[in-house]
Every structure is written in structure tokens, then in C-alpha cells.
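It is worth pausing here to work through a concrete case rather than discussing structure prediction in the abstract. The textbook approach is simple: state the sequence, then state the predicted structure, then interpret. We follow exactly that order.
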Amino acid sequence: MIPMPALPNRCLRRLLLALAALSALSLPARATPAPLDSDAEISAFAQRVVAYAGASLVRWTVVAPTHAEAQAKIAAIVERLPPIDRNLAARLIAEARPDAHGAAAFVSPQIGSTGAGACSWQVWVSDPSLPSPDGQAAMAPLASHDRMPVGPKATFRVGHFGLVQSKLYAFDETRPGAIRDLATVPAIDIPVPKNGPEDYIVLATARTAAPFLDGVKAALATSQGARRSLGPDYALRQRLLGAGRGIGANIEAVPSSMISRKPTSEIAVKPPAGRDEALMETCLYALTPTE
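Step two, the predicted structure:
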């Protein structure tokens, strides 16, 4: 056997660098905490906090080598919030990490709370574009009537915690009548529409069968979880909420400090009299494309 000539150190080093670059390209992007060391980074994070104002269970942990430094970063973030959004300071949590190199922030959802929109359904959103403390895609729960911006690789899960005897309906809708039946989607982590309009998740619990929603399921029976354009006669939001209305509209038009919390009994959306009287509870969520 003829021995192979030894590679010069320079060639070996180039080969190792090339292999490392190829390996990095093959790995998925990892979420990291958002840095807060410069004024520009603090301003960008303040804009992020405002963007997620409609996600009532999202909280943000701000870490720094000392608790005082973390509190100082929070104060700097709050200074950059619009006056009507200063109440979002309550969502910022200071944490000291002596081993931290500078200041950073990441999402830390409020677990175990239903928020103001109490509902027997639960929606969890996983989004790698959210800053995360451990390099994994961050997950955040949504309360009913929440509105959350999501990136193009975001997914969501749906679960129900009410009576098993109830009739359950789970859909999501982009344009009016463009619907998919979530009960038939094969994936557990359901991708949100890419580069599309807002995605409204419509989850309903009925004491007995709801004829209109059964009609939607029948129209989607052969879709195998794909979205179908059924036309305006099947539009969910107009029928359940009324024409021209959409969840999150109040969040856009009215400062959150002016929105009073309603009793749980008033949160369930009731359809007009004479239509689907069996409907007990309707919970809606909006996923909007990030800018």
C-alpha cells in the first residue's frame, strides 16, 4: 500500500473550515436570546414587546449579571414604549445571571393561566423566530381572542380540556370561506400559512351537533386536512362574530389600558338567535404574519 502524503497544515486547516461550514449549513437555525447591549437593540426589543401586546400570556425575561442591571435594562425598554403601551412593563421580568455576558431577553410564557379569554380549548404556538433561552423553538400558549405575530416557520397545536361528551369543532380560516378542518390535519404541529393573510383559528364546543359547523365539516370531508375555498356562504368569522368584525380589532384601535376585563360568562361568542342554538362556546385566535 502506497502511503498518502501528509497534508500541509494550511491545507488541513482549510479542509476543516470547509467541513465546519458545510455542517453549519445543514443544521436548522437556533433561537437565541435577544441582545440588549446597545440602544438600537433595546429599541428593537421594545418594538417586539409592542408587537406581542395582543398575546396576553407572553412574558419576557430580561437577564443581566446582576438584578440591578436587569432592572435598568427594563427601565430603558419601558422608556422606548409608546405612552399607551407602558402597561406592558408588567410583562417584563428581571433576572440575575452572574455568568451572563451582557444583557439579553427571551420569551417566558405565563403557564397555567387562561388569561382574560377563558376557554376550554388551548392553543400553543411554537415559533423559532422568538428569542429563546435554550436554543430551542420557543412555545407560548394563547388565550381566547389573543392575537400573535408569527414567523414563516411557526406551528401550532390545539388541545381541548372540557367535557368529552361535547361535540367539538376545530377549523382555521384565512380569507372568508378558505378553511381547513384541523381535526383531519395529520401533523401534530400544524404549520401556519406562509406569506399569507391572517390565520383565524376557530374552536367550538357544542352541547349537541351544530348544523352549520357540521355542514362545514361535510364540505371538507375529502380535503384530508388541506385548506379549501368553500365560498362566502361558509365564512366562519362573519357567521359567528358578525360581518365586518374580527378578533383583535379592539387591540388595534383602542389602547389596551382602556379595555376592561369582561366576566368569563360574557366571553363565549353566541351566534344570533335561531342559528346553531346548541353552540355553547366559541374560542377564536389570530395568527398574523410578522413584519
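Step three, interpretation. Helices lie at 9-26, 39-51, 67-79, 211-219, 236-241, 249-253. Confidence is low (pLDDT under 50) at residues 1-29, 243-278.
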